[in-house]
Fold each of these.
Amino acid sequence: MTGSSRSAKDFFRPLAVGAPSPLTEIPARPSRAIHFFDPSNEKMAAKIPAMVGTVDVLLGNLEDAVKADNKLAAREGLVKIAKATDFGPTQLWTRINSLDSPWVLDDLTTLVPAIGGKLDVIMVPKVQGAEDIHYVDRLLAQLEAKAGLDRPILIHAILETARGVANVEEICGASPRMQGLSLGPADLAADRRMKTTRVGGGHPGYLVREDPPRVDGTANLEAHRATYQQDLWHYTIARMVDACAMHGIYPYYGPFGDIADVVACEDQFRNAFLLGCVGTWSLHPKQIAIANRVFSPSVEDILHARRVVAAMGDGTGAVMLDGKMEDDASLKQCLVMVRLAEELAAIDPELKKQYDAITVDEEA
Ligand SMILES: CC(=O)SCCNC(=O)CCNC(=O)[C@H](O)C(C)(C)COP(=O)(O)OP(=O)(O)OC[C@H]1O[C@@H](n2cnc3c(N)ncnc32)[C@H](O)[C@@H]1OP(=O)(O)O
Ligand SMILES: CC(=O)C(=O)O
Ligand SMILES: [Mg+2]
């Protein structure tokens, strides 16, 4: 409840008479790829029904990347697609326009009555602090009550301003609707006055160089020295992950704009996965497979995790496995993997087959 002006006993009370009760726990629904589409782009929109079941989240984007002249068409297009499509296991999200824009009020007052029953999560861009979440929270409660919705729509915030990063913990704890956070590297870079011009990913100038070799104690500054590119986003992602974990919500990478560079995209996604993110964005259909692969634990990882679980028995003490010590803390890490695999297997039959084929030899 950090940063909220509500007292502890009021935190889970609905913010409007007749609004659905807030959730006390955010469900861990698989969301490896949040796939963006522009509902005003007829060609793109026509592909969406066939993508149901192939991606964990479909997100109708109304904000940046949608032309100002197309804002109304995007909103109406999303309503049309949502009404006409059975999303089955796939979640439907939207990214509304920023809270200071001329479009956001109509976004919310149109979408909630029209398709609120189908919308799982509303992504709010350029969130600066808890006050932005409080505003959306109350408005959603009023709109949900009016529309007679029986479950609350969740909120996902994009971390894309310096103030937002500084306030990350209070943003995560601002409402029981908070589902998660995504990194917004493009707007964040601009807001911080970083000197990059890319959408996510690394930069060749952001590096460390190995020390010069020394000859008789003297540095040879003419010698070749390897350089290692560093991750521009490590600090922000690490802050996001901690803030989300602290509040029981979910962190995500964000967009990787170099669509052609699938290798660097995979690396960036994997760094985020290893640091604790549960998913990422996909801007182009070819990024979906990358995200699904990266954000699903590998068969090798699950085999190892299950072996540790089997070897640890009741989960206390310490054992040796393959020459390494395993104990209560490594068991907990393995259980994170095993539980994630179970959640993913429940919605991904191909992955289920792979995980089911793993046999754990308890003597090994
Ligand atoms: C910083 C931020 O805010 S990031 C979030 C905002 N940005 C976005 O949402 C961008 C979403 N993606 C896009 O707009 C597009 O993918 C672009 C502009 C990046 C590339 O588009 P194109 O040049 O058309 O890509 P490309 O030619 O490879 O497309 C191949 C096919 O996939 C379709 N396609 C492309 N992107 C998508 C998508 N996101 N969803 C569904 N279909 C798509 C195209 O319509 C095309 O269909 P076709 O084969 O029938 O002609
Ligand atoms: C994700 C996003 O909106 C940004 O990078 O600005
Ligand atoms: Mg942005």
Amino acid sequence: MDICIVGAGYVGLTTAALLAELGHSIHCIDKDISKIKLLNEGKSPIHEPGLEELLRKNQQNGKLIFSDDREACFLNAPILLIAVGTPSKPNGDTKLTALKSVFEQISRNISSHKLIIIKSTVPPSTNEWLHQYLIKSGVDATLFDIVSNPEFLREGSAVYDSFHPDKIVIGSSSPSAIETVKKIYEKLNAPYIETSLTGAELMKYASNAFLATKISFINEFSRICDQYGVDVNEISTSIGMDPRIGPHFLQSGLGYGGSCFPKDLDALGYAARKRRIKTDILRAVKKVNEDQVDYYINKLDKEIHGLKGKQITVWGLTFKPNTDDTRESQSVKLCEKLLKRGCSVVTYDPKVQTIRIPIDFAPDMYQAAKYSHALIVATDWQQFKSPDWLKVKRAMIGNTILDGRNCLDRNEVIAAGLNYVGVGRP
Ligand SMILES: NC(=O)C1=CN([C@@H]2O[C@H](COP(=O)(O)OP(=O)(O)OC[C@H]3O[C@@H](n4cnc5c(N)ncnc54)[C@H](O)[C@@H]3O)[C@@H](O)[C@H]2O)C=CC1
Ligand SMILES: O=C(O)[C@H]1O[C@H](OP(=O)(O)OP(=O)(O)OC[C@H]2O[C@@H](n3ccc(=O)[nH]c3=O)[C@H](O)[C@@H]2O)[C@H](O)[C@@H](O)[C@@H]1O
């Protein structure tokens, strides 16, 4: 099938690679000309394992074309898949500027039937609103169908996730549109969930909100474990064995970040408030997450007898490993707070070399530890989990290692003569 993907970000690019690989003819467009230029040079503008190779392979075999000629794509492609960003406003509402601009262009360039698939995460009833928008713009209702088809991939494993989804949610009131979407994905081995437009939107928010709730639950629990000298990792393993709870998203640490959990929780809270629904759980999830960075910093403060004037090493700036994304990263928030408390910060991240705050970047993880009073593992990149701790000890002035992701082998750290500190890790 001929499909035009609008938005060459994490979701748009991964979906473009997936659908081209499944045999479809893909045109992927973006308003950002520099991204398109890079992609046409065979380079991915984002770091996502396996993505660049897959994009290049499908560009070479002619299945995937990148362009910035949006109007031509809107005119020609019978299927439009929209994956533009939907960031938050300060009040928690969602900025739909990109989506509205795409729909404005579609309304001006529609002369044959379009199946419009919305992949972007949007607040409940946005897809209904977009439907009405096209009608009000004078587009005949027979000329288009809208389908809500939310995305559940995770950054860092986006390619794997999109080839192995645990379900494909298809929200629409049009049976023929639903059938076409099923055909697009027919080579994937995943169950379909058919629902309404708004049902699909809410399934996406429920998923992210529940996952964030699990994380904040275990993070709050880690503070209780801290007081009782019990290892929270053992608690996670134990409760995770109960199939009613499940083992995933119970890794305690500095908390969740990224471009989605914080924004989607805010958007859901905002949508609920608009309908006068109180969202006590959502508020508590957010509060625990916000407090978590302070909890770690206060623990470090006690451990090294004051922070002011100390040099702290932070390993990892991305919001999770295997990505170059620092949006809403707890690690970046940690650095900002350390600076405010009078520390100097030296950092190393395998994928980030600059950031908008005044911290120093070292060329490798060991040089980052040089002359520091304490070292914090803030992102659980594989290489930080089992480093040469003796080398770290020789580089540092102090000897405290704060495990911000509860991902280190405590005994290895202690064996090197270092002081292991975690939250909920005796
Ligand atoms: N990043 C993730 O892991 C996931 C994101 N989502 C959702 O998918 C959507 C996209 O997210 P990302 O891919 O992370 O965003 P992104 O910010 O990486 O990419 C969005 C792209 O859309 C382009 N764009 C904006 N306006 C445009 C326009 N009018 N015409 C053409 N291109 C335009 C931007 O230049 C950018 O390249 C969001 O709604 C997000 O919540 C859903 C699941 C996973
Ligand atoms: O809507 C989205 O954008 C996506 O949001 C998340 O994916 P993502 O944000 O890429 O990454 P996650 O693996 O969910 O991690 C999010 C944050 O939670 C933290 N986390 C995760 C798991 C855990 O047990 N503990 C924990 O602190 C991670 O360090 C990270 O900061 C969801 O997992 C995806 O299903 C969803 O599609």
